[in-house]
Amino acid sequence: MFALLKRYREVVVVVVVAVIPLGIFLAHARHPGDRTALDRFVLTATSPIEKGVDWAITGVMETWQRYVWLRGTERRARELSREVNELRAENAALVQLRAENERLSRLLAFARSRPEHRAVGARVIGTRMDPKGLQLVTIDRGSDDGVRRMMPVVTTGGVLGRIHTLGAHSADVLVLSDRNSSIAARVERSRARANVRGLGAPGPCKLEYALRSDDLIEGDELVTSGTDGVFPHGLPVGQVTRVKRGGHGLYQAAEVLPAVDVNRVEEVAVLVAIEAPGAAPAAKAAEP
What we know:
2 domains
C-alpha cells in the first residue's frame, strides 16, 4: 500500500490539491440549509486553513501596498527636496539681484548729484591688498570707456581712490588706504583743512597737517576739499577718531575711519569732469 502511494504520490498530491479546493468551493456555494454533513465537516476542517491563507494573503497585500506607498513617498520627498533647493537658490539669486539693483540705484543717484561730472559705472573684478605693496582694486572699465589716470573713483559711501594704472578694458584703482594716497580733506563741521593719508593696509588712515589750533573732535566727518586737483569737493572721506594733541608742535594727529570699506566694494563710479563749452582745458593733476 505504501509502495503504491509512493509510486503515485505525484498523482495523489495533484488530486488532493484539486479536490480539496473544489470541495470547499462547493460547500460554500450551497445554501446553509442545503449543506450536507460532509459539507459542514469540510467547512469546519478547512476553516483554520482558510483563515491562515486569508491572513497570509492580506498580510502580503498590505506589505506590498505599504512598500509601494513608501517608494512613492520617498520619490516624492526627493522631488520636493530638489524643488525646495531650486527655490532656495532662485530666492538667493533674486535677493542678490535686488541688493545689486539697490546699490546701482544709489550709485546712479549719487552720480546725478554731481552734474559737473559724468559717471562711468564699473564693477570690481579684482583686488590686491598687499601690506608691503600697493593697495589696488581692479575695475572692468578702461581707456576705451573714457577712463584716464588720476580720475577719482567713488562709491555711494564716498571716496574709494583714484585711477592708478590703465588698460583698454580695465583699470587699477589706488585706494585711499594705500601709503601713496593722500587726499585733501576738510572737517565738515568746522571747515578746518587737513590731509588723509593711507597706512598701507585696509582699515584706519591717518590725518596729517591738521593745525593744533583747529577745532577737531572725535566723530567729525571729513569730506574732500577739492584743492588737490583730483577729487571734487564735498565727497565723504571718513570720520575722525582718536584725536591726539601733543604738548608742543604745529600739528595735531588723529586716525580716520574711511567712509568706504575697500573689502566690500562691488560697484563704483569713475568721475569724468565735464568741460564747460568754451572753457580752457583743466590743468592736469600732479601725478606721484
